[in-house]
UniProtKB/TrEMBL annotation:
<protein>
    <recommendedName>
        <fullName>tRNA (adenine(58)-N(1))-methyltransferase non-catalytic subunit TRM6</fullName>
    </recommendedName>
</protein>
<keyword id="KW-0808">Transferase</keyword>
<keyword id="KW-0819">tRNA processing</keyword>
<dbReference type="GO" id="GO:0008168">
    <property type="term" value="F:methyltransferase activity"/>
</dbReference>
<keyword id="KW-0539">Nucleus</keyword>
<dbReference type="Pfam" id="PF04189">
    <property type="entry name" value="Gcd10p"/>
</dbReference>
<dbReference type="GO" id="GO:0005634">
    <property type="term" value="C:nucleus"/>
</dbReference>
<dbReference type="GO" id="GO:0030488">
    <property type="term" value="P:tRNA methylation"/>
</dbReference>
<dbReference type="InterPro" id="IPR017423">
    <property type="entry name" value="TRM6"/>
</dbReference>
<keyword id="KW-0489">Methyltransferase</keyword>
<dbReference type="GO" id="GO:0031515">
    <property type="term" value="C:tRNA (m1A) methyltransferase complex"/>
</dbReference>
<comment type="similarity">
    <text>Belongs to the TRM6/GCD10 family.</text>
</comment>
Length: 342
């Protein structure tokens, strides 16, 4: 027994002293493990070098937001025998590797000043967190994070523990509300209220409760001298602020990370990009970017189009054991870059 774990020790018979074994979970038994000999192990220094906090905890902020797993979930992961690297699902961030992410930041020319626009769908907020981190704190740079759904994906943004000042320069805005408010110039919330009033009138029209009708008619006879305006929701305030930003200045960089076909998104967001400024589009598949490349090639105000992919392979450097890492992801996606001119 090792704590609450049951270890089968018959594998150590006949082995040399100082032989290292790996605990392999047995499916038939709960918290039961067998031993398997391993030739290479990770030292404590190797693990510390992989941690973003370094060798100590000076850069760690304990605010209770980093650990999202419950005790039961942690025990289930331990019983499954998965390592920390295996638990991180690469598909949840759109197969966006660190080399593709770094080039996404470079080709969109993210700096500490200016306005930048990002469309993100399906990467848990990883590009927005990286771009906001590069913009930095106590700067004048702003980032508009456009998303297709009702709720933005901010899991990795919250994990960065940005300061309040830095977080306020990130605007999470629905792309459809943003475009409608920019071009139509009307209050989206008033439209929603009108729809609700019309629905209520239709319900009242088909209602059979005469007492309810009488009370509503009596209320309509009163004259209200004071009308208290309704408080605008946060999403509407951020949408209005984003529209004001793009009306006052053009964006210095545009980045698109999409699961869907990016052509319509590019055509909708290119007018907000300043002249002689770069844009970059990421997609996990090549074919949508090829079609987008051919359509953008026909535009006279788009130049220097380039479609490419990356393959990053890290190397293990040890005495007499230097070789490329065997487990390397080859699905890093594709990038389409270019410049917008007048």
């Amino acid at each position: 027994m090792l704590g609450k774990n049951l270890i089968q020790m018959h594998e150590i018979i006949g082995k040399r002293f100082w032989t290292t074994f790996e605990m392999v979970p047995i499916k038939e038994g709960k918290r039961t493990y067998s031993l398997r000999e391993v030739l290479e192990t990770e030292t404590l220094n190797d693990l510390l070098n992989e941690l973003p906090s370094g060798n100590d905890n000076r850069s760690i902020i304990d605010d209770g937001t980093s650990q999202k797993l419950s005790k039961e979930e942690i025990l289930q992961l331990q019983e499954s025998g998965k390592s920390g690297k295996e638990i991180v699902d690469h598909t949840k961030i759109g197969n966006l590797r660190m080399d593709s992410l770094s080039q996404l930041l470079s080709y969109s020319d993210i700096q500490s000043e200016g306005l930048y626009i990002l469309y993100d769908n399906g990467s848990q907020g990883l590009p927005a967190a990286a771009m906001l981190n590069r913009i930095g704190s106590n700067t004048t740079g702003c980032l508009i994070n456009l998303h297709p759904g009702n709720v933005p994906q901010v899991v990795l943004i919250n994990a960065m523990n940005f300061s309040k000042e830095q977080s306020e320069r990130l605007l999470n805005v629905n792309i459809y509300s943003f475009l409608r408010l920019y071009y139509q110039g009307e209050d989206i919330r008033e439209q929603n209220l009108d729809v609700n009033v019309n629905d209520s009138n239709e319900t009242l029209k088909h209602s059979t409760d005469s007492s309810l009708k009488r009370k509503l008619n009596e209320c309509n006879e009163y004259e209200f001298t004071e009308v208290i305006p309704a408080k605008k929701p946060k999403w509407l305030l951020e949408t209005q602020r984003a529209v004001e930003l793009v009306k006052n200045t053009k964006a210095r960089g545009l980045a698109i990370v999409a699961k869907e076909h990016p052509l319509n998104i590019v055509n909708a967001l290119l007018p907000f990009l300043g002249p002689s400024r770069p844009f970059v589009i990421y997609h996990i598949y090549r074919e949508p970017l090829q079609e987008t490349y051919m359509m953008l090639k026909q535009k006279q105000n788009v130049i220097n189009l380039r479609l490419f992919t990356n393959f990053l392979r890290s190397y293990q450097v040890l005495p007499d054991r230097t070789h490329p890492d065997i487990l390397t992801s080859d699905t890093g996606g594709y990038l389409l870059t270019g410049y917008l001119i007048q």
